[in-house]
Fold each of these.
Amino acid sequence: MSNFFNFIKDNKEKTFFIFILFWLLVIAQIETYSQLTTSGTFAATMRLAIPILLAGLGGIFSERSGVVNIGLEGMMIMGTWFGAWAAWLYGPWWGVAAGIFGGLIFGLIHAIATVSFQVDHIVSGVAINILAAGTARFFSVVAYANESQGGATQSPRISGEISSFSLPFLSGGTFLGNETIDLLRNLEDLNLFFISDISGLLGGLTRDISYLSFIALSLVPICMWVLWSTPFGLQLRSVGEFPVGSESLGINVYLMKYIGVTLSGAFSGLAGAYLVIESSGIYRENQTGGRGFIALASVIFGNWRPTGVLMGSGLFGYADALQLRSEESVHGLLLLISIVLLALSIYLLFNKKSRNGAISLLMAFGFGIWFLNSTSVPNEFVYFTPHITTLVVLSFASQRLRMPKSVGQPYKKGEGG
């Protein structure tokens, strides 16, 4: 038993993920909760997770350079407005480019304030969010005042869309101009434990994927490579860890911080453009819905690494997709939360963390009793599911979190002597 718990301790993240996935598959076998693992749910998960993923990747570049960026929300807002405006006038790909530009400009403003003028990072981030909301409203009044379908709070509907594709033979795509079989769909329809569930997962991620979604997902390994396998990435991370030492080695600390924060704005702008072009086809005020703040939470959850941000954004996207597709299935999450909290309490008690273990145990019984004595959940809880799921995971996820040492600390050129 001791060796078993030691293995879990040494492989926390993997064990946590496998444990949740296993019980999710088990609960999905109950007919009422079958929507938990369908391809449609996972396809919706991807579309809803990508904006958070992109903004989270931007947050990594900023915070790895030592600058806290709670202005991700505002930069996303600028991405939604500029993305919708350019897509309405010139087409969706121009909208993507304009969204990146809009976020980049506000990232640059944040960099000027925090790096050059030494403004407190939190104050500057709050100002960016307020400024972005006001700027979007002003631009909407100017651009759409005479448009019948537009106005102060929304744009006209975007015309055109970005093409999509499916993998041949696996997800029913085309090969040499001919339609192929949809193997994953056939396996999913067999309703076999694990096989059909995994087929649903893979099918949702490989069927009718837009090229913009493919580009967004490919940025995860690209960011990993840039940050950990290139001289630029090493310099950026060293600035966030020890700027004085970095400057003594000839690194331009100000330049690296500017690049990191500006890149975070560009990523957030792309996230906003994706939200408009792929999810809704129209700009609406308050469209981001706090996703920039969730992206910042995913940066922390992901331990300031792209793969961790991918997991965090996927979790939020899954909870969001579930409450949109099947409110009944949200009730099944009560059982899943109860099981996870019960396992967590056992782990904490084994590691002699009695207080936290007791709290987790009480919460596990609370969710279990709620599940056994109900057949549905209130609509308010359903709508709040994505947010409460994120809060629970951030509170209890067993990760070795370590932020960059100098993040949030002001730095003046030459202060190292």
Amino acid sequence: MVTGFDVLTMGRIGVDIYPREIGVSLREVETFGKFLGGSATNVAVAAARHGRRAAVITRTGADPFGDFLHDALRGFGVDDRYVTAVPGLPTPVTFCEIFPPDDFPLYFYRFPKAPDLEIRPAELDLAAIRAARVFWVTVTGLSQEPSRGATLEALAARDRGALTVLDLDYRPMFWPSREEARAWVERALPLASVVVGNEDEWATAVAGTPPDVAARRTVDRGARLAIVKLGPRGVLGVTGSGVVEVPPVPVEVVNGLGAGDAFGGALCHALLAGWDLERTLRFCNAAGAIVAGQLSCSDAMPGTDEVERKLAQG
């Protein structure tokens, strides 16, 4: 039976181990918190917080951390039927350091290989991927086989007129070079109707052009929407009708990690609601700001009412 999820994501999952002590090196930290993590997974959590029926396609290790992630997903209301274990590979763990307002070093432990890069084309539920109202994938899934082939096959299964989001999500530590990442992103871009990333990620995706020009070219080549996250300068959105730029939402940053995933979940909600671009970008900015002001990522994802209250504060 084909299940029509509102939001179906595909990509990274893991356990985030965040220090309870802010402004302290991991060398000295003594207490940590354990949280569900991984960009695509956090986006599904964020979408669920907005009342959307969400699921994630990913893989964990066959270990207690993998069990924890299943428990966490169910607790957040995210369907975990497409989350399977890979015997012999440990569930990834990610540590971070927290030096507000803009220094949050990440240390990924995804060795010898992350299970979420073992997603295989033959295991995909293509009917569910086609039926999802929003399908969200990240560039990390293109970094290694068999995940690369699975990601491209999943994208190709979608109708170009559907809401298919490519999160540029470029992480240098997952790639041998920026040039190789660009080569595979170029394969994926024509298969997406919505593309979102920060300035550096756009520079990786489209060489030799400013991010706003790269976004315009992406729309000219068939995408419905291209979004450039400008950090402290706000966010820019490009459609066939023009360009909209909105300012940032003021926030006292505690941990900037996860803000982009909150933005992503809010974007899925706004796209499904059919909002105009300016309202969409303002809503997404506010969702990201809420998470940036808290320690955790998944646990901090706001619901719609909380985002609306943030917007009402000006």
Amino acid sequence: MHKKILAHLNEAVLLFNRELILTYINAAGEILLADSEKHLLGLRACALFKRSDPALLIDLQQCLTTSESLIDRELNLTHHEQATTVNFSAIPISEHGELTEILVELQQVDRQLRISKEEQLLTQQNTNKMLVKGLAHEIKNPLGGIRGAAQLLDYELVDIELKEYTQIIIQESDRLTLLMDKMLGSNKPLIKNNLNIHEVLERVKQLTIVEKANNIQFITDYDPSIPNLIADKNQLIQAFLNIIQNAVQAMQQEGKITLKTRIRRHMTIGRKINKLAVKIDIIDNGPGIKKELMEQIFYPMITGRAEGTGLGLSIAQSLINQHGGIIECQSKPGKTTFSIYLAVETDHVKP
């Protein structure tokens, strides 16, 4: 009965015997360690945590020796190349006055930080969308009047040189209207179909190479076990294309871009826990994003390039948000990673 309760907890729970051999792990523990119960049970703590913070083993040994509960915070946990930060607690379990097992709880700290950051990002995105929408409408209305007046004036004028000025007014009005439309984003409803995410990424890769990236080397690291998604293919292509084009421009048309996909279980996106989600990483080896821009890169008109409009990433985030997903970014010189998270609708998707 107790194990049934532990199995449904969101926090990782592990049970070790007196020899510090793992005898039980719940589903959240398997997700945290990115390994199956079958492979993990029977492992000694020294083998399980050999690449992690030494404090994990020290704390376990102390709990075993003193038979007292203890808590440790912000420890590094690394298993199968997957590193995370956890809060650790160990509780001794005794029978007839003798310690028999140690119950360990691992709370993923960076997961909570990621969820908090994600909620903040979504709130900012929604607020920003409302402000931009209001501003765009306020600008488009007088632009229409200016363009109309310029057209009427153009009809009346005979002097070719004067007509050049009215044509400039009309062309610039059209350019600003197009810019406002881009800021507002697409008003088209999503046309969702059953699709393979890797076919979408391959299409984006081909478009990028054909357009302007002959000197860009693409590396693919796909997880073939990822099921199909229910999504709008064209909208996803546009979102990924915007991110990749941004990377190409940052690398000045020369460098490496890695497309990587992985499955994520019990993934929280926008306060909703999804049984299954896809993580798509777009990684480039460019100069990185300036620290002062990192918190604003998904805002429209924010760009590190003099010739840029600053709309590509904002539109990409909006398109992924419409799919119930989120885009996150980490950057340092030599490695910038845009991570796109999309939920898999397991009730409707064919394997």
Amino acid sequence: MKLFEKIQQYHFQLKHVIVLFTILLIFQLAVSFVHKLSLRDFLVRTQDWYQRDSAEKLANLTATSLELLLETTLQNPDMAAEEQRKMIQAFNIILSQQVLQQHVEDLCVLVRNGEDIFAIDDGQDLFDFLVLHRMPEGSLSPRHLEVIKMYRQYQESLRAQEQIFTRLEGRQTFHVFVPFVPRGEYMGAVYMRNAPDFSFITNEIITSYNQTSLMFVALIVFGLLSMFYISSYTLRERDDAQTQLLETREKQVAELVHYQKEALFTKRIYHTHHKAEKVMGFIKEDLRSLDREHIDEIKYRVTKYANFISRVIYDMKWYDPPLQTIRNPIFKTDLNEVIAFLINHIFRRVATENTLIRYVMDLDEKTPAVPVNEFVIWEIIEPLIQNSVDHGGDGPLTVTVSTRYASESGRIELGVRDDGRGISAELLQPDESGVKRIFLEHTSTKTDSQNNGYGCYIAHEFAVQRCGWGIDAENLQQGGCQFLITIPVTVSR
């Protein structure tokens, strides 16, 4: 069932059908070829057996005819001249008619007189030798010398076993020796050289098989072509449906991305809206307390606040602000100054001073300027400090912001740490992309607002995606937690 489900999940394409079609066609041709070879081999073996059998039967029939005729002659030794002529004629008919048979190339009777062996192929000579006991003339003709030589090799076996002996020469020439035993007395052998040829039968069968095989292959090919056409049509319909589905899905994804951008934009504006309201309150308060003695200090603060409000308004124009408005060589932002302004004029400036929270700045004076807009840095650092304040616990809390510049490695380490209760262990677990859950959207331990879990997410997005920095969060052994931002810098010399 699992294999069947896996096959169902796999989507066949046109190239798979072509490969399947080719394999089936090659397989069918291979099967036809192997079957043809097997049939040919079977017919050849059958033909060899039948040729041997027919040659032996024909030679045995000739020997039997001669034996029966000779027995009739020996029963009447005092026959008249006319009867002798008929007998000689009968011998000639038997010897000549067999040679006239198709495929019979030679026929003779091998007899022995002492050490001499005679090959007789004439009725008169055979009658003289068998009836009158006279030695034949011309029995040692050159064409019978090879036959006599072969007979000398097998005569003892023929005499002892009195069975037909056949010798195959080449593919289809049979030398057949049949024991010649008239009246039960071994006198020699009847030799027949037979070359039966039944290849025409094999050729006819093979031709018929080729025609049948060709028709069968044509039907298979026609069936495969039909299946190929139907499959191609089906796959084309499926591909068209998939294309339409993908186009629809693409539109849906585009709409979803647009919606998510709008939602992200809305959340970002909502998140900065509260900061803008707080900053506007600071501006009003500074304007109310404006006097000659503090005019330069208030002017500096109000300018910073106003620039931040301008940045918030600018961000309201864009889903995704242009990169050059975030990172640009013309920006030469002093990290220490941004941190000091946030601590002194944002977090320490509250309507009712919180005596339970203490802010410490441990800033390295050798920290070089960075080519990032200062209000982008503001949006990175401020949520991390606010996270320490919100989740530090109910008791006294110390929030320390530090900078360290390592010239040998060419990077700045900006840390925000506290001595509170730390970060929940589950928020420090990374997801499948390696980002810790505290930096994911909608991840927070606060439950009093639907817009929680967005500050650390914004800090991570700005730091990593837009500034190319590194950011990490961890719990400290002595208690509390730390956010560590790694900033690569290039200092011109």
